[in-house]
Amino acid sequence: MATLDKNSNIAKTIWHDALQCSPKPFGWGLDFGNIRVIENGTAFHVQGKVKGWIKVQLKDNRYNVAITPDENSGSEVLYEFVSLDNLVSLVDENVKCGVSAYNFICSKLGLLHKEAV
Q1: Do 68 and 74 meet the contact criterion of CB atoms below 8 Å apart?
Q2: What share of the chain is helix, strand, coil (3-state, %, to 5)?
Q3: pLDDT-based confidence at 117, cuts 50/70/90?
């Protein structure tokens, strides 16, 4: 029961302190019936240029954001060490530009991007 309460509190923080503070999420085609509490965060479905699931999870006082497009569920894009202040902008840029704009979005928001090796 304590884990559920912890996960719910983290999800509430994400929604209350970041996502609900901006009008941008209303342009993402959110299905409010599909918002979920997950381990250390929340997940929700969007329907912009990217149609898919967004998972936001707390890790070491920052957030990991995973974006899994519906059309290619094997191509998850992961952003790590995202501040609460950058969550809305990060999701908004992905919904508008698509997941192929990973490097552009990282440079625009000042995030470190991963190189394939």
Answers
A1: no
A2: 45, 30, 25
A3: very low
Alpha carbons 60 and 40: distance in angstroms, whole number: 11
Output the pTM of the full model. Answer: 0.87
Quick one: which of 71, 36, 65 has its CA closest to 52? 71
Tell me the pLDDT tens digit for each residue of 32-86. 899 999 999 999 999 888 889 999 999 999 999 999 988 876 678 899 999 999 9
97-101, Cβ contacts within 8 angstroms, sequence gap of 24 or more: 97/49, 98/49, 98/50, 99/50, 99/67, 99/69, 99/75
Cβ–Cβ under 8 Å, residues 40 and 10: yes
